[in-house]
Amino acid sequence: MAYDDNNIFARILRGELPSHRVYEDDQTVAFMDVMPQATGHTLVLPKAPSRNLLDADPAVFASLLSTVQKVARAAKQAFNADGVVVSQFNEAAAGQTVYHLHVHIIPRFEGVPLKPHTGEMEKPEILAANAEKIRAALQG
Ligand code: AMP
Fold it and tell me: Does ligand 1 come within 6 angstroms of the Cβ of 35?
């Protein structure tokens, strides 16, 4: 299937929709997931368009995974998490709901179950505060 230039993340990348950004470089962006499955749930995207991993240019993988590692470390530190899940879905049958390649970074805490995927919207002020904590950890 073709890439849709008007998917939500393409619009965020163009600055047409807001996001709580924690990181950006020439090739990648990271921002808070608005329906977090755990405190600090963050998404990392390549700026280059692709629906998902299956149609992506492998040239994006090095920068994408490098940003995933940076943000995963920072999120773990920022929330004093016990672990971090890194996940990525390809097409609807696999759970994908937004069709621009992205990687989920989900801090995990011993004994705390994950909330449902695309469940409840988090309050903007909490997302903003969590983004600030990750930005601070990225600088530390
Ligand atoms: P996936 O199901 O892997 O395609 O993940 C899409 C993710 O994007 C879900 O976890 C949603 O909660 C999240 N999401 C949807 N809309 C937005 C948005 N405007 N800003 C940030 N995250 C979003």
Answer: yes
Burial 57-84 (b: 16+ CB within 10 A, else e): eeebeebbeebbebbbebbbbbbebeeb
Q: Mean pLDDT across the stretch 2-29?
A: 98
CATH of residue 133: 3.30.428.10
Look up the pTM and report it: 0.98
In a domain? residue 74 = yes
Q: Give the tens place of pLDDT for each residue, 55-93.
A: 999 999 999 999 999 999 999 999 999 999 999 999 999
Q: What is the torsional sign of CA 130, 117, 11, 2?
A: positive
pLDDT over 90 at 140, yes or no: no
Domain that holds residue 87: 8-139
Ligand 1 atom closest to residue 117's alpha carbon, by position in its atom list: 10
**Which tens digit of pLDDT belongs to each residue from 16-32?**
999 999 999 999 999 99
Taking the centre of ligand 1 as the mean of its atom positions, its distance from the CA of residue 8, in whole angstroms, is 8
To test the pocket of ligand 1, the residue of 1, 6, 7, 8 to mutate (highest count of ligand atoms within 8 Å of its CB) is: 8
